[in-house]
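Work Package 3 (structural annotation) set out to generate three-dimensional models for the target panel prioritized at the project kickoff. During this period the team completed the workflow that converts sequence records into discrete structure tokens, so that structures can be stored uniformly alongside our sequence database. As a representative example, we reproduce one entry of 190 residues exactly as it appears in the project archive.
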Amino acid sequence: MNPALIVLIVIAVVLVVAFIVLTILGKKAQKRKEEQDEQIAAASQTVNMLIIDKKRMKLKDAGLPQQIIEQTPKLMRRSKLPVVKAKVGPRVMTLIADEQIFDEIPLKKEVKASVSGIYITAVRGIRGPLEKPKKKKGFRARMAENYSKANEQLKAEEAAKAERKAAKAWLHVLQPDGYRSGHQVGGLLL
């Protein structure tokens, strides 16, 4: 057998095994996440709060209790979390927001939030609906917009250039090369 063919077969087998392992791990992680979401939903309470500040910051810098920092996995300690500082009743608390709702949380406004422990799972406005944040444009969308603006500007410049050229040609019709302006030709003043 050809050695190159053997190498390709081994690589294909390794890729298939890796795909199967990742699929199994993904399903287990999804089940675990669904169970955690059910537990969070069961323990959640609706609370009125005034949002003071919100940031994405590291767990150590967030000002959370030491017990919470010790309970988190070591890899999560270095990652940035969506942290919200809010006044709940008479106390100012530091809470962690869900990643999907973090952008919807308004600053310096009172909201009604579903809270499970120190985790904010949902936010609703007390006085009307919350403002939806503008979605950021992707790189490709920004480049397409810049291209269309530049293309429109180029077309406008070409149209202006063609107008000037047409006006110049019309002047040449009115003033043939041998005549200067101010001369009278056939009763017309040029």
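The radius of gyration is 34 Å.
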